[in-house]
């Protein structure tokens, strides 16, 4: 079939990409007192991400979709890939040796590891091993979220959770892996956001999205509008405001909702927009977890020029009181987050 538009040729030339490991080492060179432990920690996470990606890619061929028949601490039925992803992350972190404490969304308590190893740098990692795991049953995108904190050199093992539960401002690094049409590893150490795409032909994450900045002109909003009747009247008014056409341009902010936080967040980070999971009558504290989801994504979005709020408070300023604490979340383009806060204060437009 003839087309008036020729498809541009795909180049086979090797691009001068930089790998994730090279990038991490170059960043490490900027800090002369670094021991390299943190770099190895990020490498361990990237290795686990590759293994999780491999299992997701084979999910339709192997018996790894569906539920395992157990309920996690959140009261949710565990998917087989939830269990696999958590196992691979824990295995990689145990072998690496730099992590001393794991907090998983799937487990009721923290997991102490590598307690007897001699190391000056001790880290606690909180993660959601497979966000949106139900999507794997229908071949939709999912993700992994992680958050890294320093632990003091000396602490009482019985009180390790007390020192590990720190505000999001104390994060050493945060990131996520988006498993979709391609697999991306996105992270920040508090000095900008960079994204790396997995090249399966060489098994390496390559720098594809340097210095990510969320666009100032938002394109999308993401919320489960099936719960509209359960939303506060001020939030309903905000959603009606979002649906209006821009009187100057005629443009409209479009609704897009995948139902996997990583996927919705990733799209909005690249295109501009806001993701919302507010408090409702059924979930008065919200649904997303502060330590596993809200804090790491808040650090990323702020480093990319965006904002993250409960609707009234900055997410990163919250002092966590519980390992599985939930919070309402409004996250994305700063202009839309600030507008949401205004509506929730009762200061929105009529």
Tell me what you see in this structure.
The protein is an alpha+beta fold and 350 residues long. It folds into two domains: 190 residues, Fructose-1,6-Bisphosphatase, Chain A, domain 1 (2-Layer Sandwich); 125 residues, D-Maltodextrin-Binding Protein, domain 2 (3-Layer(aba) Sandwich). The protein has eight helices and 17 strands. Strands 4-3-5-6-7-8-9-10 form an eight-stranded mixed β-sheet, with helices on both faces. A hairpin with a 4-residue loop joins strand 9 and strand 10. Helix 1 packs antiparallel against helix 2, helix 2 runs antiparallel to helix 3 and helix 5 packs across helix 8. The radius of gyration is 21 Å and the shape is globular. It starts with 19 loop residues before the first helix and ends in a 6-residue tail after the last helix. The relative contact order is 0.12. About 2% of the residues have low confidence.
Going across the biggest sheet, name each strand in turn: 4-3-5-6-7-8-9-10
- According to CATH, the homologous superfamily of the largest domain is Fructose-1,6-Bisphosphatase, subunit A, domain 1
> Into which percent range does the helicity of residues fall?
25-40%
The overall pLDDT average reads: 87
CATH fold type of the largest domain: Fructose-1,6-Bisphosphatase, Chain A, domain 1
Integer count of domains: 2
Shape: globular
Distance between the termini: 54 Å
Secondary structure: number of strands: 17
**Whole-number radius of gyration?**
21 Å
SS-derived structural category = alpha+beta
Given the structure, what is the number of helices? Answer: 8
Strand content: 15-25%
N to C succession of SSEs:
HHEEHEEEEHEEEEEHEHEEHEEEH
């Amino acid at each position: 079939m003839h087309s008036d538009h020729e498809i541009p040729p795909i180049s086979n030339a090797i691009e001068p990409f930089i790998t994730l490991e090279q990038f991490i080492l170059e960043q490490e060179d900027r800090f002369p007192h670094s021991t390299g432990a943190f770099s190895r920690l990020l490498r361990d996470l990237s290795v686990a991400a590759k293994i999780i990606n491999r299992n997701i890619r084979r999910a339709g061929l192997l018996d790894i979709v569906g539920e395992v028949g157990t309920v996690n601490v959140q009261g949710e039925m565990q998917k087989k890939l939830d269990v696999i992803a958590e196992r691979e992350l824990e295995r990689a972190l145990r072998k690496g040796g730099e992590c001393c404490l794991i907090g998983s969304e799937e487990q009721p308590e923290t997991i102490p590891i590598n307690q007897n190893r001699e190391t000056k740098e001790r880290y606690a990692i909180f993660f959601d091993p497979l966000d949106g795991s139900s999507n794997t049953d229908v071949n939709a995108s999912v993700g992994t979220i992680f958050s890294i904190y320093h632990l003091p050199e000396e602490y009482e093992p019985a009180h390790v959770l007390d020192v590990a539960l720190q505000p999001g401002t104390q994060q050493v690094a945060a990131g996520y892996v988006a498993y979709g049409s391609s697999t991306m590893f996105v992270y920040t150490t508090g000095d900008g956001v960079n994204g790396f795409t997995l090249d399966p032909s060489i098994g390496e994450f390559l720098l594809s999205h340097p210095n990510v900045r969320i666009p100032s002109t938002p394109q999308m909003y993401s919320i489960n509008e099936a719960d509209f009747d359960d939303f506060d009247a001020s939030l309903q008014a905000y959603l009606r405001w979002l649906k209006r056409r821009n009187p100057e341009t005629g443009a409209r902010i479009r609704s897009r909702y995948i139902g996997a936080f990583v996927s919705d967040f990733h799209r909005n980070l690249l295109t501009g927009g806001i993701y919302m999971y507010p408090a409702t009558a059924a979930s008065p504290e919200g649904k997303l977890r502060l330590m596993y989801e809200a804090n790491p994504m808040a650090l990323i979005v702020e480093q990319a020029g965006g904002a993250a709020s409960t609707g009234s408070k900055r997410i990163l300023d919250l002092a966590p009181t519980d390992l599985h604490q939930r919070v309402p979340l409004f996250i994305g383009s700063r202009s839309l987050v600030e507008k949401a806060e205004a509506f929730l204060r009762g200061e929105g437009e009529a």
